[in-house]
Amino acid sequence: MEASAQLDLDKILWVLTPDPPHKQGKKITALDVRIMMVQAAIDEDPLFTLSYVDINRPGPHYIVDTMHLLHEEYPGDDLVYLMGGDSLQNLLTWYKPAEFISVCDYVGVMRRPGEVIPTEHLREGIPDLFGKLEFIDAPLLEISSNQIRQLVAKGEPFRYYLPVDVYAIIKEMGLYREGEDND
User: What is the Cα gyration radius of the chain?
Assistant: First the structure.
């Protein structure tokens, strides 16, 4: 993964949130199924680990709290939060964004080739961000998880957008078919 190579990361934790605050009111895929799909996607890479930090505690699950708990779990380690450019753009809408940035050692932002992500609107609300921001050049993948779910719902091909084991789970369990409103 580009983040690991560019930021010299020893491990990448995948954190699943049972009931994400930004998805309130939306039907989401059952937690046990999401755990199964993440595990299937990351099993073959020793760099990746599924973290149960949010799974094993009651909500609400805000990333600022998660980062505090991860610092307790990994004392002395630098913690780098990885996000996409769209998340960076919306950072001011997050719960306690300035405190979140204060508990991150770095923030790695994935950007597509040639993409310029405007950050000036963040300067006043989160001044500490700019000393912690690291941009990661990522390969251009022209599909999102929402788009994959839409393809599945419409019965269109989606096999080559996913690891084979994740594809198999979606097919076997009949996930994201037309009429289901799963995120």
Answer: 17
